[in-house]
Write a structure and sequence with these properties.
This protein has two domains: 5-58; 111-226, Distorted Sandwich (Glucose Permease (Domain IIA)). The protein has two helices and 14 strands, in the order E-E-H-E-E-E-E-E-E-E-E-E-E-E-E-H. It has helices spanning 25-92, 222-226, and strands at residues 5-11, 18-24, 111-114, 117-119, 122-125, 128-131, 137-139, 144-152, 156-163, 167-177, 184-185, 190-194, 203-210, 213-215. It is elongated, with a radius of gyration of 33 Å. It starts with a strand and ends in a 6-residue tail after the last helix.
Length: 232
């Protein structure tokens, strides 16, 4: 008959006497299972603690970002009057007195390979792509105030410039940004260099907005209207 017990021997260092204990196989199995359960619970608890620390760090980063954004918005409001006054003459040239749109400076010389695109009523491409040489200078088409200069998903290095009368211009896929947020830029000033996105040739993604409305840059820049090979 198979023995279902184990004998444990202990030797006393003080008097050399031996002691033995018998434990059943079922007891050892139960003890092992309990040890594994306790270990798994400890690991899960540690994972939960680390996850909470990670979420707390992310929350703190978001709070810091919000604080920086609040400061930027405060500065924008404080400088709004001066900015609109200094840009008034520059932006006035975009719209003639009769409502006709006049031309502005092209940010980069090149050929339009992709225009504004829609999927039904949804706009899927809110700007134009202008093929150019990598490293070419990108210039500000008007005086303005840089509200963002950094890197974001799908656009890489990107710059957003605010102009008077609710006008904004956007420059994406830059190789290098040459201006920082909260910089004032003048018409013709170098703001970035042409880069591109993976799988495409070097080009500038260029957008013009007025408040929340997308405008077609080809209506403002005569060069882009003439050099347009995008699918209409």
């Amino acid at each position: 008959m198979k023995d279902n017990h184990f004998t444990l021997w202990f030797l006393s260092e003080s008097d050399g006497r031996q002691k033995s204990f018998q434990v059943s196989r079922a007891f050892l199995v139960t003890l092992t299972v309990l040890a594994v359960i306790i270990f798994l619970i400890s690991v899960f608890g540690m994972w939960q603690l680390l996850s909470q620390d990670s979420l707390l760090q992310e929350r703190n980063e978001l709070l810091k970002y919000k604080a920086r954004t609040d400061i930027l918005l405060y500065d924008l409001n404080a400088e709004k009057v001066l900015m609109e006054e200094s840009l008034e003459n520059s932006v006035r040239s975009i719209f003639a007195e009769n409502g006709k749109i006049l031309s502005i400076l092209a940010p980069v010389e090149g050929i339009v390979t992709k225009g504004l695109e829609w999927d039904g009523n949804k706009m899927t491409h809110s700007g134009i792509d202008i093929a150019a040489n990598e490293g070419d200078n990108i210039k500000s088409p008007l005086d303005g105030f840089v509200v963002f200069s950094g890197e974001i998903k799908n656009f890489g290095n990107i710059i957003i410039i605010s102009h008077a009368r609710g006008l904004y211009s956007v420059y994406g896929h830059n190789k290098k940004n040459l201006v920082n947020a909260r910089d004032f830029v003048s018409i013709g000033q170098k703001i970035a260099t042409v880069g591109g996105e993976e799988g495409t040739g070097p080009h500038l993604h260029f957008e013009i907005w007025q408040n929340d409305k997308v405008l077609d840059p080809r209506k403002f820049v005569k060069m882009y209207k003439k050099k347009d090979v995008s699918i209409q």
